[in-house]
Every structure is written in C-alpha cells, then in structure tokens.
Amino acid sequence: MISGITGQDGSYLTEMLLEKGYIVHGIIRRSSSFNTFRIDHIYNNPDYLNSRFFLHYGDLTDSSNLNRLVEKIQPTEIYNLGAQSHVQVSFEVPEYTAEVDGIGTLRFLDAIKETGVKTRFYQASTSELYGKVQEIPQTEKTPFYPRSPYAAAKLYSYWIVVNYREGYNVFASNGILFNHESERRGKTFVTRKITVAASKIILGQQDMLSLGNLDAKRDWGYAPEYVEGMWRILQADRPDDFVLATNETHSIREFVEETFMNLGEEIVWKGNGVDEKGFLKSSGKEVVRIDPRYFRPTEVDLLVGNPAKAKEILGWQPKTTFRDLVKIMVASDFEKAKKRSE
Ligand code: NAP
Ligand code: G4F
Q1: CB of 68 within 8 A of CB of 114?
Q2: I want to staple 102 with a disulfide (CB 3.0 to 4.6 A). Which of 26, 108, 156, 239 is the partner?
Q3: Cross-strand partners of 11
Q4: Cβ proximity of 189 and 230 under 8 Å
Q5: How confident is the model at residue 341 (pLDDT cuts 50, 70, 90)?
Q6: pLDDT at 66 over 90
C-alpha cells in the first residue's frame, strides 16, 4: 500500500514493486484535473490493472478513510510517501502541511494499531530534519534542527514512528532521504526547474530562468535508486532508521553550470547578491537572474549525508553521480522541449 503514489517516488516504487511480483494498492487524491500522469503507463498496462494494481481514493487528512483502507486491503507493507512536499510552500500553508506531513503519519500508524493488521510501515523522513546542520556530514545520530513548517511537521512524523515502534511494537522505520531527483521530479523543485528552463532557453522557447538562493548546497541522488532503498529498509530484520544519501554536496549554482554545460553552453556570472546574473559565454545573452520571491524565511544552507549504516546493514549504496544525474535530466527535458510534449 502506497500513499503518494502519484508523486515522483510513488511512481518509481510502484514500478519496482510490480516487477518484484507485489500487488500494489495506491491512494490517490480526488482532483478536478488529472493527477495520475506519472502512473498512467502502469494503469494502462492490461497485465496490471485490476489484477495486481489497484487505486483507491483517499487522503492523509481523513482518518476514517485510512482506517477503512488498511482494514480492507490488509497490506503487508505500507509506504507513507504522501505529503505536501514543497518546503517553500510550507511557509504559505503551515497548518495544512502539519496536518498532512505530521498528523497524517499518526493517522496511518494508529490505523495499524487499532486494526491490528500485521504490516511493515515505511515513513518518508527527510534530510530537511537536519536543517541548520549540527554536524557535517549528517548521520542517523546527528541532532535535528528543522528550519521550515515542512521540516517541523516531518520531525513529528519521525518521532511518532519511533514511538509506535517502541510503544506498540509496530514494524515502523524512517528512511531519512536526502534530495533525490529524476526526469519525473516536480517542476517547481529547483533541479527540474533548471533543466526544463535551460532546455527551453537553448531552443528559444523561454527567455529567462529566475532563481532564489544560488549558494545553498544539496546532496542530490537519483530517485529510482532511493525507492529501492526504501524497499530494503522494510526487508531488514528489524525496524530502524536509515540515511540514504550520496555523501557529496553541490550548490544550485553548480547545478545551473552543469546543466548548461550539457547543452553545450558555459555560464558566466556577473554582479553580486540579488543583482547577480548569469550569461551565456558564447553570445553574452542574459539567461539567469535572481528573484527574491524564491528566498525562504529560513534557509537550509548545506546538506550532505553519510549513508554508511545503509550500506552496512542493507547493502544499499547510490550509483548515479551528480554529473550523470544532471545529464539524465537534461537529456529528458531537452527531448520533451523539442517535441513540446510537456
Ligand atoms: P511529490 O512528487 O511531491 O509527491 C507527493 C505525493 O503526495 C503526491 O502523490 C501527492 O498527490 C501526495 N499527497 C499530497 N498531499 C496529500 C494528501 N493530503 N493525502 C494523500 N496524498 C497526498 O514528492 P516525492 O518527491 O515523490 O517525495 C515522496 C515523499 O518523500 C514525500 O513525503 C516527501 O516529503 C519525502 N521526501 C522527498 C525527498 C525528495 O528529495 N524527493 C527527500 C526526502 C523526503 P498529488 O499528486 O495529488 O499532489
Ligand atoms: O529543490 P528544492 O525546492 O528542494 P528542498 O527545499 O531541498 O526540498 C526537497 O528535498 C527535501 C530533502 O532534503 C525533501 F524533503 C523535500 O520534500 C523536497 O523534495 O530547493 C533546494 C534548494 C533550496 O535551498 C532553495 O532555496 O534550492 C534553492 N532554490 C534556489 N532557487 C530554489 C530556487 N528552490 C526552488 N524550489 N525554486 C527556486 O527557484
């Protein structure tokens, strides 16, 4: 059973579990427009639909719905990936974010406890928990310091997972995942925003890429590898908490440079602070500028995770490098822009 099945991770996880022979039940939100584009190819596969792949309407804000679904489906594994997952948006809708990303997890865990269903529970915890980092690199033992309503809500989820594990013997684990991206990443997250915009700029379909803080650093991995890590977390002998990360960090500025490099262009930066601009070296055309609208009230300056525990206990390690990740995303977005397919 997967919440957040229509998201980046949900779609990759579904593919992986179906390939392993699982029956997958996904929770989708009712929407006035289509929100299933990442899983339509699975839905439209006659081998899967109504035999091994089922979708149910539901929402993490609705406990009676979650109770009913857990009781009806009797899942052997639950992956709680559903969330208002955008950090900047969480400053605009803090209460809703707390409801979904914090209390939503409690609702799920309590449904397991009250129904007595024997299952394993994966919680999509996050490197945002480290926020104003207390240690470099971050490990499972690094103290948390959340810096957004999103991170504060996820902090509650992290601890309620630990509490239900210790108090009620629920097999519940936290995957503390550092940023992971892909060609399916939502277009308002910075990596995909950059690869989509740069592709369109090169093709003459867009003039400018507006960004916020160029100097924040993230530990970026490739999403399909991270969902495999989620699965491994639930196959472990006992429930526990694991960091999944690459142990490498790069700035947004580097991501921009690497993206344009893949498109055959070099970026030259001029100016400082909000007046800084990025130009194509070949033509002098201005293509990147700073828009303070994308600054956050509190920023997470640097994330870099040490996945040694996951390697040792789960045999998990990332494979895709930063350079390969950018290459994969640019190749996909450039093709889509050429075909004007998204
Ligand atoms: P995503 O693409 O934004 O997907 C989020 C999913 O949650 C979507 O399916 C969304 O449904 C669903 N959702 C939102 N509100 C919901 C609600 N009230 N009830 C039920 N479902 C709801 O996120 P992602 O990148 O796949 O991330 C998956 C999970 O991992 C999230 O919990 C995220 O916070 C966490 N995480 C992500 C990263 C990362 O780098 N990607 C790192 C650490 C942790 P709609 O399609 O209808 O909007
Ligand atoms: O791509 P982002 O929005 O991702 P962020 O905030 O790191 O959160 C993502 O990763 C978390 C794991 O650490 C997840 F838990 C969370 O659900 C989500 O998937 O922003 C990355 C960085 C930030 O420092 C931001 O200030 O990029 C900076 N940034 C600069 N300009 C921008 C922009 N971010 C966005 N979204 N848009 C910009 O224009």
Answers
A1: no
A2: 156
A3: none
A4: no
A5: confident
A6: yes
Characterize the bridge pairing of strands 209-211 and 180-181: unpaired
Q: Which amino acid is at 89?
A: V
- For residue 50, pLDDT beyond 90: no
Rg (CA), the chain: 20
Alpha carbon distances (Å) from 87 to 77, 180, 305 = 27, 14, 19
- Rounded CA-CA distance 206/209 in Å is 8
174 sits in which H/E element: strand 171-177
Ligand 2 pocket list (CB less than 6 A): 85, 87-88, 126-128, 178-179, 188-190, 193, 211-213, 216, 218, 252, 294, 296, 299-300, 303
Strand order in the sheet with 209-211: 209-211, 286-290, 277-280, 267-270
Beta strand pairing call for 286-290 and 277-280: antiparallel
Q: What distances in angstroms separate CA 91 from CA 80, 145, 190, 297, one per listed residue?
A: 22, 16, 17, 8
